[in-house]
Amino acid sequence: MILNLISQKNFITFNKVIAKTIGLEEALVLGQVCSLSNIFKDNEFYFTYAEIQEETCLSEYAVKKAVQHLIKLGVLTVTKKGCPCKCWYTINENVIVEILESRNHSNCENEGSRPLENEGSRGVEIGGSFKKEIKKDIKTKDINSAQPKNDTAPKQKSEYTQIIERYFDNFKQLYDNGQVMTEKPVVNFKQAGAMVKGLLKSISKESIFKVLDTAMNDMWIVSQGYPLAIILSATQVNKLLNAKPMQHYQQDTHVKKEVYTDEEYMAGASDLDTIGF
């Protein structure tokens, strides 16, 4: 009863073999455009990404990416025409057959047998770059599925992640010391990613660590809230990388004292009297 209820309407034709071969999102989009092709004549039709998004519940980005992949594989052919200009699509049935056959051949080869052919029928020959791309995808998937997964192995963090974590650790330390008021910083991660990527082209990760650590002792930067965008700016990076430890200089003996003993004060007053003040 439930099966009949959900299959009455609002369904999409979905092929598992195509999904396993070229991708889940591609299979969903292909099933939907096949439904559209039945509405138009001459096997030529048009659609918008928003229409496919509405029917498949995929994001517009996922739909666009899937359509471009289908065009690249030759499953869809696109032609721009009309006024206003529209993208008209055609489904290449022969390529879809090649996808299905390539998967069948791959499964049979993995099982150590050859595909069975009906008497009087001929197998479909797969040729061209499409065959190479499909076989490469299948081979990669088979190899990955054959290798045991080690879920316990630690994943190597990227340099960007390590730098951001170092910044957050420093900020927390400043917060614990009462040097910044907010518990967590406000970070534009898109901007930070671009700045870190640019810096890593010229300096090492360790140098960026030094910049972040040295900035904790910069009173002006801390007074601004220890902002990442300011710290990673070219001016501050140059200043913080070349910063020298604070040195304690001896008091210049030529500088006039501001505190005097009684004897010194009286001697100074006598001098002033002598001069004529």
Strand order in space, largest sheet: 1-3-2
Number of strands: 3
Principal-axis shape: elongated
Number of domains: 3
The H-level CATH homologous superfamily of the largest domain, spelled out, is Winged helix-like DNA-binding domain superfamily/Winged helix DNA-binding domain
CATH class of the largest domain: Mainly Alpha
CATH topology of the largest domain: Arc Repressor Mutant, subunit A
Range of strand content: 5-15%
CATH architecture identity of the largest domain: Orthogonal Bundle
The span between the termini is 115 Å
Mean pLDDT across every amino acid position:
74
Structural class assignment: mainly alpha
The arrangement of helices and strands along the chain is HHHEHHEEHHHHHHHHH
Count helical runs.
Answer: 14
| Stretches with pLDDT under 50, minimum 5 residues | 112-129, 248-253
Radius of gyration, whole Å: 36 Å
Can you summarize the main beta sheet? 3 strands, antiparallel
Q: Indicate the percent of residues in helices.
A: 55-70%
Quaternary structure classification? single chain
